[in-house]
Design a protein that fits this description.
The protein has helices at about 10-20, 55-65, 70-75, and strands at about 20-25, 30-35, 40-45. The protein is α+β, with helices and mostly antiparallel strands. The chain is globular and about 30 Å long.
């Protein structure tokens, strides 16, 4: 299992847009992305920071419904 990179919030938004997420809105320094799925709407909140902490990145990956390896392949 590869180590998670230190990436910015903007980079995460670009990666999630590759798998169908769209920017819904922004409130302060947080970007809210949504994706319509078969079971409903899925939402992810991404902090717009220069570097995202490892725990926060893992939670974003989980909220997006991705596996860690799937996310790393998109980076």
């Amino acid at each position: 299992m590869s180590k998670l990179p230190r990436i910015s919030g903007q980079k995460i938004v670009k990666i999630l847009s590759k798998v169908g997420f769209n920017v819904s809105r922004q409130k302060g320094s947080h970007i809210i992305l949504t994706k319509q799925t078969e079971t409903g709407k899925r939402g992810v909140v991404v902090p717009n920071h220069k570097e995202i902490d490892k725990g926060t990145l893992l939670e974003i990956i989980r909220q997006a419904g991705l596996k860690r390896d799937e996310f790393l392949n998109l980076v």
